[in-house]
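User: Structure please.
Assistant: Input sequence and predicted structure:
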Amino acid sequence: MKIGVVREIKTHENRIALTPAGADRLRAAGHEVTVEAGGGHGSGLSDEAFVEAGASILPDAPSVFASSELILKVKEPLAQEWPLMRPGQTLFTYFHLAASRELTEAMIATGSHCFAYETLEAGGSLPLLTPMSEVAGRMAIQDGAKALEKHQGGVGILLGGVPGVRPAQVLVLGGGVVGTHAARMAAGMGADVTIMDIDLERLRQLEESLPRNCSTVFSTPLAIREMLPHVDLVVGAVLIPGAAAPRLIRRDDLSLMKPGAVIVDVAVDQGGCIETCRPTTHDEPSYVVDGVVHYCVANMPGAVPRTSTYALTNATLPYTLELAALGPARAIRESLPLATAANVIAGRLTCRPVAEAFGLDHTPVEEAVEAIEASA
């Protein structure tokens, strides 16, 4: 199969969807790999490194899209990339369609096959979301600690405190991968941490595995509101695979929080779990609503591209190899994980949570596969 890797154009998105080692593996499996010139520079990966791994370099994104059957990306295609997509072409990336009706309808209109990293399930987990969730969870605390500084608009508190001065109080909403890594990072910096979830069994696991300065609380709207007056940093880390994130903190709840308190909403890719959340960029990462600082960067791992690119390729490469070997129709029929990754197939929306989020028609993925085979 002809596989293309394009340069990411989202603001301050320095990751690339494939490392030279990944290109070498794909070439060894008999596939052709092309990379857009300069695509890896943000991650410290030169064009020469890709050429040495057997890839070809093309000058721009239109050339890569035009010559490739399978496109690998990191983030969702932006509006200027939509016209480059074509019917029958496969795109494998993070889509987060439930956060944007416009993007969803655009992908349907392209007639392409959209496989989403974030909905791919295997063994009850989301293996392609996990590495970036690990990065984002840890970064949420780094960036949250910075936002707490006075010149950033925060209350002016050091996350871990010092001898004789209490540390910051951190509330983590969600006990999944993001929440666990955020809680562990905050605890390691000396903060007083509370992590909330609605899964009692998960809370039991966290109680046993997290440091002693982490407490677990069953999540209810009242429990969250009771915590808000006391916390300095809130991390939103809630995920419903493929669907819009539930709203756990409303605009009215901000009045309960301290002036200069900080919210980091990692769920912003899925619409955010804070009502006042809106996507920001690394250029202007935060804004203030009712005295509360909001940090809502939609591609947090893009700030540490060297780490993130390698972590992402380590996770995606086995599925990329499988998708390239089978093609989209056989992949859906023969690989349950790749079937769960199929969000839009041949102009049909196959991800039910996205369809429900926007009131759009849903097509079972098996029926969409029949449309591919009928047009072949």
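Residues 2-111+304-375 form a domain with the Rossmann fold fold (CATH 3.40.50.720).
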